[in-house]
Amino acid sequence: MSNRKAVILLSGGLDSSTVLAMAQSEGFECYCLSFNYGQKHLMEIEFAKDIAVKRNVAAHKIVHLDIANFGGSALTDDAIEVPIDEADNTIPVTYVPARNTVFLSYALGYAEVLEAHNIFIGVNAVDYSGYPDCRPEFIEAFETMANLATRIGVEGEPVTIQTPLIHLSKAEIIIAGLSLGIDYSLTVSCYKLDKKGFACGHCESCRIRKSGFFEAGIDDPTRYN
Amino acid sequence: MSNRKAVILLSGGLDSSTVLAMAQSEGFECYCLSFNYGQKHLMEIEFAKDIAVKRNVAAHKIVHLDIANFGGSALTDDAIEVPIDEADNTIPVTYVPARNTVFLSYALGYAEVLEAHNIFIGVNAVDYSGYPDCRPEFIEAFETMANLATRIGVEGEPVTIQTPLIHLSKAEIIIAGLSLGIDYSLTVSCYKLDKKGFACGHCESCRIRKSGFFEAGIDDPTRYN
Fold first, then answer.
1. Domain boundaries, chain B
2. CA atoms of A132 and A96, how far apart (whole Å)
3. What's the pTM value of the predicted model, to 2 decimals?
4. Which fold has domain B5-216?
5. A113 contact residues in B (CB cutoff 8 A)
């Protein structure tokens, strides 16, 4: 490997914080990216900042995205309510249009400037809430595209999109993160986080997180309101 | 075709203006996207606005991108000079990291909200300046990825990335655009455009444009300083 730099997509949530710890445990020098995309749960960026400082990362950039100006998601559009306690098998209204595609594209640009050949993202195909851009086939297609799109992909060693959580259950992710020293009280998952950083306990993201701790047999340290 | 909406990446340049005219001539209802990415030639956005108004498009959104904050390109980074009259076969310093990937990702998000299945981009593999993200193999890989990434790709008719200029020479593009009523004095190509919208006449982009008019046997209406 030509260098040990990696770009890490860090939301401040349970999954991406675990991914950061995993990348560090593999010896990567971590350059973190967080996005302010007009999400209603904007407090999560504050959590991302704290985690980046506590984990002593090489750099942490916060990028402002105009994606909310397109509308279309309950996470960014005030006209659409975040649903409570409703789950079925269709793509949910909390899906943000092309979100992971946009996030990974920025990560690719940052990787190109850094000459980093590894991009880490905490997508998960098990508890993935039905988002199409969390599936392995999407990640593989993005990686193929990335290697045709960029100077680093065309001229050098291939770019790899690293998805260490993709086949883990939420409980397995929690157990892995605890073994790497993650303090999950510093992470958030809630789509309806209040201004003090307390979780609602009822949205889909809270429910998946709660059942992860339950299945792992670990006390849930999340601050619920 | 389920609807005639299309997203058009419109920079205010010669190529994308021609693409807009082509999409309109095919009967598409055009939703244009321009990007403010900290480019030194920011005046081009004013040209894009004028063209969008004159061509009576359905909507025109201007998206602010944080991409310049990564550095790495002569088009956005003050520490790197835009070269004058130098061309070779390597990827030039004017390449913006992952630019078309980021642009197309936004276009994909916008298309998803609109339920538009067509995205038009004026990439060109003939006079393409050596940018890896202007090649047909990149576009094909992006399209494959887009159809795995999105609700519209997964649930409905496939998303198509339309590249009507990809195999045309600059001269052929100019001739096509003129036949569709494009006034090229309203478009800009220069990387070093001055504040009044006058082109330098010497940067790589100006040189490609000039030789296009020359080869087409058409008087160049560009305003040079």
1. 5-216
2. 11
3. 0.86
4. Rossmann fold (3.40.50)
5. 70-72, 97
